[in-house]
Write a structure and sequence with these properties.
227 residues, alpha/beta, 7-stranded mixed beta sheet, 4-stranded antiparallel beta sheet, 16 strands, binds ribulose-5-phosphate
Amino acid sequence: MLTQDELKTMVGQAALQYVVSGELVGVGTGSTVNKFIEALASLRDRIPGAVSSSEASTQRLRAVGIRVFDCNEVERLSVYVDGADEIDPRGYMIKGGGAALTREKIVAAQSDRFVCIADESKLVGTLGHFAVPVEVIPMAAQRIIRQFGALGGMAVVRQRDGVPLVTDNGQHIIDVSGLQIADPLGFESTVNQWPGVVTVGVFAHQKAHLCLLATHTGIRTLDFSAA
Ligand code: 5RP
């Protein structure tokens, strides 16, 4: 029986096959991506560098000798590799458990292919068991919490060390539980219109094209590009 850490290592290594020699790679955030960054170090002489979705990943990339480029220096990326908190059978995801959702969505939007790397516990029938992270402008937080309440959700401001967590963008995160998201595209579009919402952690418009799912019997590849 493999541990969850071993599953993450396995899928981090499996994602190397999607890295294009001579091209920049988009890099997400989280414990699974950290395994990908460790594996990517072996290819550092074959790629010019990476575009990163968080300060945390930037530090890790630099620590293994990979140059990090600003998003604005780059027009397109052929591939973006990132984890997920949940992924459904259509490739729609909940992301933002690591509070990096806004930059993750930006880098994903700039990439031709989103390769999601996850262990099999992340695959769900319907999104919503994991509380949906939403990055918000702090002065709008309480109104947005009430708006989610009207939809049947229970929203709280994410805390770290007893105070609201501050994202890389200087904003707050609210986590919304109790939702069953049957229409991820509609949900993402609706919540994105609410004043004060920076980014909602439903990735439907920027869904995965491919998911490498680490299982106890090996890597399962889910291809959503035709869906
Ligand atoms: C960070 C994310 C991560 O991809 C997501 O939280 C999964 O993380 P992990 O690989 O640690 O389970 O969206 O904002």
